[in-house]
Amino acid sequence: MSILQRQVLWATCISFISFLVIGAITYFFFPVISLEALWVLKVMDLPFILFLAIVSLGLGILFGLFSGLYWKKQLNTVYEDLKAVEQGRSVLEVSKSNAQEIVLMETVIWKLHSQIQEQAKISQKIANEKAEDLENRIQEIVSQERNRLARELHDSVSQQLFAASMLMSALTETREESGTENNETKQLRLVEEMIHQSQLEMRALLLHLRPVALKGKTLQEGAEELLVELIQKVPMSITWKIERFSIDKGVEDHLFRILQETLSNTLRHSKANAVEVLLIQRENFIILRVVDDGIGFDVEQARAGSYGLQNMHERAVELGGTLKIVSVENEGTRLEVKVPKLDAEEA
Q1: d(C-alpha 171, C-alpha 191), whole Å
Q2: Distances (CA, A) of 97 to 42, 49, 78, 101, 107
Q3: Residue 340 — φ and ψ, nearest 5°?
Q4: Beta carbons within 10 angstroms of residue 246's beta carbon
Q5: How many CB atoms lie within 10 A of CB 164?
Q6: Would you call 259 exposed, middle or buried from its count of C-beta atoms within 10 A (0-12, 13-18, 19+)?
Q7: 330-343 confidence digits (pLDDT tens)
Q8: What is the DSSP letter of 32?
Q9: Would you say 207 and 233 are in contact if contact means Cβ atoms under 8 Å apart?
Q10: φ, ψ for residue 134, nearest 5 deg
Q11: Model-wide pTM > 0.85
Q12: What DSSP line would sit under 191-215, residue for residue?
């Protein structure tokens, strides 16, 4: 039962009790008025006792209705504040309600919101300290080794795959020009497609082995450089919208790694023809969005067994943000990271 219904029912009960009490007092203090007279006396063409009952009930229902609307409005304010805290939005200052209980609840919500905001600031501060301290001492060695592996794979396996792809393409074109269409030609096309898929897998692997640090570049510069390089190497339409705004070092590194992991997964698994990347700032939030038109996947099943998705989720949470993935079979996948942007003084 809603609060509005409870208020109406409670007011109706009060009206009924008031009717009985007033009727009893009237009968005992004015004995000349008999019960029969109460039915004979007319008010607005209604017996007095029936008119009194209708008026009592009407007043009680109106009282309950307005009382219920008032409390419903007060509780809706509390609900909206709680919803804002859940979604990470800003909570307005405590309203000056006449109900002390509502004021106490909103005060607690305001304190809870402040604590969550403070926790987000501390998380980002820790991320910045990690990026500035640990990254400088450890990442250089890791980057050197990854670069070495990437160069060896590019100079050997990647080049061999490219040569094999060119050879198979020449063979299939020769057979098509000669008019030879048989099972062997179909098998050659299948092998050519497998080599093409292996090239995509190799490029995704090389993307994993790229240096994970931006090395003095901003997130926008590193993202554009990465996307331009992919355009030159993969047969896929890649578009982007990247706005220019300042981002803390730790946030930049985490978002860049999430972008690398997302693009790598897209190359390896999505079979997409087009990818769109968006990096913008809206309402004190940094938003990174990657959308493709691939085959999609089961998000819940993939999250349970994917280290990459779990790692991206942990990076977003470490920044006090959220990561949301929506995927529809044969329509594509959309990944969005939303991180609160804090002022330098607050961080």
Answers
A1: 11
A2: 45, 40, 11, 9, 11
A3: -65, 135
A4: 10
A5: 16
A6: buried
A7: 899 999 999 998 76
A8: T
A9: no
A10: -65, -35
A11: no
A12: HHHHHHHHHHHHHHHHHHHS-SS-T
